[in-house]
């Protein structure tokens, strides 16, 4: 049975079971994301991390389980309704419009009621974008494209951003800057559930972590304990 939402939770996933066709992938997964907190979602290849993000964002229907956002049951809402309620996915491979300019990518995300000041505030968080508003987004470097994907997500005024492999293919210096941006967004009140291949680095910025193994939660708790535990070696190959 799905459990009740803990009082301090922003997003809860309870008893979530899902898969593709007749192949089950996730088995009774429980996850809690508190407000303004970065949560790492780790696990070996094929564990079901991306599948879980797809179910949470509404792209894939679960066969059982409950999803709550800020106390509200969103399990049956379509993806765009979840986005309106503050649930935002940055998929693996970015999530920008590569043939549009940086400015157009951002303007598409600005709701009509939003003041220009809000766009200015987001550009202050991502200064590299301000000087490239007229550049075609597909010609930005990989790191700049990820900054644009993050800036677009922030403009949607999210409560929770689901981040899938944002560091994929980037140089270490750019990954540092991106991870700084994630930390700044948490300080600004946004929660994130982060799938990331750089296990040790993501544990440094996320106080909480979940490890999925074969579609089930193998660890949930503080990143500190995970770092110390054998479980990291056992499930993540980080020994
Ligand atoms: N569209 C799909 N149709 C059928 N099976 C799929 C589909 N997408 C993923 N799967 C399967 O679901 C399982 C979980 O895949 P998923 O991509 O969620 O894992 P992951 O933990 O994100 O892996 P990785 O770290 O390698 O990206 C895998 O066995 C995969 O083959």
UniProtKB/TrEMBL annotation:
PROSITE patterns: ABC_TRANSPORTER_1 (PS00211), ABC_TRANSPORTER_2 (PS50893). GO terms for molecular function: ATP binding. CDD domains: ABC_TM1139_LivF_branched. Residues 11-239 form the ABC transporter domain. The keyword RNA-binding does not apply. It holds the Pfam family ABC_tran. Belongs to the ABC transporter superfamily. This is ABC transporter ATP-binding protein. The lineage of its organism: Bacteria, Bacillati, Actinomycetota, Actinomycetes, Jatrophihabitantales.
């Amino acid at each position: 049975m799905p459990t009740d939402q803990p009082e301090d939770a922003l997003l809860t996933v309870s008893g979530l079971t899902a898969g593709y066709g007749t192949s089950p992938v996730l088995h009774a997964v429980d996850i809690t994301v508190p407000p303004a907190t970065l949560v790492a979602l780790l696990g070996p290849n094929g564990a079901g991390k991306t599948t879980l993000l797809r179910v949470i964002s509404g792209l894939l229907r679960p066969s059982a389980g409950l999803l709550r956002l800020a106390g509200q049951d969103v399990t049956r809402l379509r993806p765009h309704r979840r986005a309106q309620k503050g649930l935002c996915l940055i998929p693996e491979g970015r999530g920008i419009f590569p043939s549009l300019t940086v400015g157009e990518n951002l303007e598409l995300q600005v709701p009509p009621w939003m003041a220009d000041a809000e766009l200015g505030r987001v550009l202050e968080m991502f200064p590299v974008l301000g000087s490239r508003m007229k550049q075609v987004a597909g010609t930005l470097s990989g790191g700049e494209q990820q900054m644009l994907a993050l800036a677009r997500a922030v403009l949607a005024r999210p409560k929770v951003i689901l981040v899938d492999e944002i560091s994929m293919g980037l140089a270490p210096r750019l990954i540092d800057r991106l991870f700084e941006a994630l930390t700044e967004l948490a300080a600004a009140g946004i929660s994130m559930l982060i799938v990331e291949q750089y296990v040790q680095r993501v544990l440094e910025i996320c106080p909480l972590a979940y490890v999925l193994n074969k579609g089930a939660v193998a660890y949930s708790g503080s990143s500190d304990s995970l770092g110390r535990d054998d479980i990291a070696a056992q499930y993540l190959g980080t020994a």
